[in-house]
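queue> pop job 88
queue> type: inverse folding (structure -> sequence)
queue> payload:
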């Protein structure tokens, strides 16, 4: 009996030791493999966008956990905007399938289901400015308000302006069953719809960017300048025309709300999460916030060629930044582009009144509701608008100034 127990104990001990050594050797092997991969992934000086093209779809759980959260975005011009962007960007678990994205990354040219081939041929010499607006089929009311306000076609300060909306196939076709009829009717009525045969999702905006540049190169090469933006912005087209009138469309021009030194977000929870397997470098090239930016005809043509050579990247703004880097063009920051919205004092929401004179000096303001766009446009175009106190309204949302004004008002 005793002998048997002793034998069992020895046996168990032996098994445990064997198991431990096996585990240890496995761990060592994993660590080695990991190190190798790390060394392999060092960004090369040639700035390859995908560090490991041999195995583009590979990303394991370990890598994701190891990746440390980094500072999200630091804007050179306005540190104030930083807090705004972090609160605005939705924090949802990324359901993005990087693997299938990378597998399908060569599918990048999609059929144009609705075209406006004569858009830029109606006026001799072509339009001075083409306004290209990213929209989704469901946003009918946004397109309507843009058509009625800042996106009007015709002469603005003597310059010919044309408009197109950039659309894909709605993801949820049951949400708006009549979408096809609607879009065809809109196209017939306004002649401003471009519809491509890809699913209109956030991560497919890069496809919209690419296919629009190709379209512009093919059907609108006679344009002088292009404004490209979202459908929830307010654009002061008059200011843009004035700004562009002094520029040469045959020279490079790319102006907007430029973001410098942005780091890829390695936090899985973020909407903008990018694993290192997809982008290995620590920093993105300078890029323009997608809310709105300007480019010349010359730059459009160059970009349309350059973007063909760049691997698809799921964040469209950054993707365009990569194309700019490829043609060695530095995007220019302009203070008039507020694509992260205007900073408002959150502690005093009653101060968020519209100040049209403030908007008068801007070019693009992001994140506005439909009635706000309507109101702003109408206030700015009111004959009664006079902005005499220019100095005071330059920064109407400044904390100190406003508090003073409120206390003054309260005491008077
Ligand atoms: C599509 O939209 C309909 C109506 O809004 C909604 O009931 C349904 O859940 C949506 N489907 C998906 C897959 O989101
Ligand atoms: C992009 O569009 C294509 C074509 O419709 C679709 O297969 C793909 O799933 C979409 N990708 C994303 C990330 O939504």
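queue> result:
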């Amino acid at each position: 009996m005793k002998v048997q127990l002793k034998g069992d104990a020895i046996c168990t001990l032996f098994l445990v030791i064997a198991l431990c050594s096996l585990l240890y050797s496995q761990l060592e092997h994993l660590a080695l493999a990991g190190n190798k991969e790390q060394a392999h992934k060092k960004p090369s000086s040639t700035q390859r966008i995908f560090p490991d093209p041999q195995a583009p779809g590979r990303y394991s759980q370990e890598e994701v956990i190891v990746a440390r959260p980094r500072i999200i975005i630091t804007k050179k011009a306005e540190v104030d905007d930083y807090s705004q962007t972090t609160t605005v960007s939705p924090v949802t678990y990324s359901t993005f399938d990087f693997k299938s994205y990378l597998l399908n990354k060569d599918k990048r040219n999609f059929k144009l289901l609705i075209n406006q081939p004569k858009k830029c041929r109606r006026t001799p010499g072509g339009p001075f400015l083409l306004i290209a607006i990213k929209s989704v089929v469901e946003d009918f009311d946004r397109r309507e308000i843009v058509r009625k306000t800042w996106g009007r076609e015709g002469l603005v300060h003597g310059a010919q302006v044309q408009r197109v909306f950039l659309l894909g196939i709605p993801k949820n076709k049951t949400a708006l069953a009549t979408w096809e009829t609607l879009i065809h009717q809109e196209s017939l009525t306004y002649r401003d719809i471009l519809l491509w045969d890809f699913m209109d999702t956030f991560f497919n905006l890069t496809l919209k960017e690419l296919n629009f540049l190709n379209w512009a190169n093919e059907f609108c090469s006679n344009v002088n300048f292009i404004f490209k933006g979202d459908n929830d912005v307010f654009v002061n087209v008059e200011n843009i025309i004035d700004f562009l009138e002094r520029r040469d469309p045959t020279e490079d021009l790319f102006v907007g709300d430029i973001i410098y030194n942005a780091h890829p977000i390695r936090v899985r929870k973020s909407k903008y999460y990018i694993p290192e397997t997809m982008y290995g470098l620590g920093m993105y090239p300078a890029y323009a916030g997608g809310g709105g930016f300007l480019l010349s005809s010359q730059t459009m043509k160059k970009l349309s060629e350059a973007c063909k050579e760049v691997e698809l990247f799921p964040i469209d703004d950054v993707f365009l930044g990569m194309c700019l880097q490829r043609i060695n063009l530095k995007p220019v920051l302009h203070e008039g582009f507020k694509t992260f919205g205007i900073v408002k004092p959150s502690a005093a929401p009653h101060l968020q009144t519209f100040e049209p004179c403030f908007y008068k000096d801007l070019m693009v303001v992001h994140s506005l509701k439909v009635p706000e766009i309507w109101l702003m446009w109408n206030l700015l175009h009111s004959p009664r608008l006079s902005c005499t106190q220019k100095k005071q309204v330059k920064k109407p949302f400044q904390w100190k100034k406003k508090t003073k004004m409120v206390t003054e008002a309260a005491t008077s």
